[in-house]
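Sample intake sheet
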Amino acid sequence: MTELSKMFDGTPAGVDRAGLADAFNGTAPAEVLDPIPAGEYQARAVDARLDETRTGTPFYMMRLDVAAGEHAGRRLVARWYLSPAALPYSRRDLAALGLDAFARLERGEVPGGLLRVRVALRRDDDGTARNEVRSVLPCASSASPPPLAAAPVPPEPKTDPTPPAGVDDLPAGLVDRGMI
């Protein structure tokens, strides 16, 4: 072990290493879940946000929780792409959910109440099965969109009472030997 690696153990600053180790070692691994079967499900929108693909195509992503039945509690993700070719279809689908202005997308608004979600089962080239949300529609038989729920408020960032370390806080040997 080098002198430098002895000084820095790789644990992020401000983390209780012993507590984290106890929590990690004492936590049972989550079960691996298979995709849910293709079909139509009732779901609730949990949250949404604007994002972009690795290649830069913007999209609106909404996370949905299945609300009833055998698969209640399972999480699905719907995406509406905002490329020039897809925009008319995305506008149509999102307007049916009451998301008819870009400002609503920017705020991460989601439709309130139950939604009908059509889910397909896709197989990737390597044979891996995964769910794909094909459509999200209001549950009510009326033509009006469901009421919008307020965008979830992100939690307040935790403030660390300890100020960040400066050069004066580092071991003298690092600075004197020109390592920093």
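Comment: Strands lie at 39-52, 58-66, 75-81, 110-111, 114-123, 129-138, 148-149. The longest strand covers residues 39-52.
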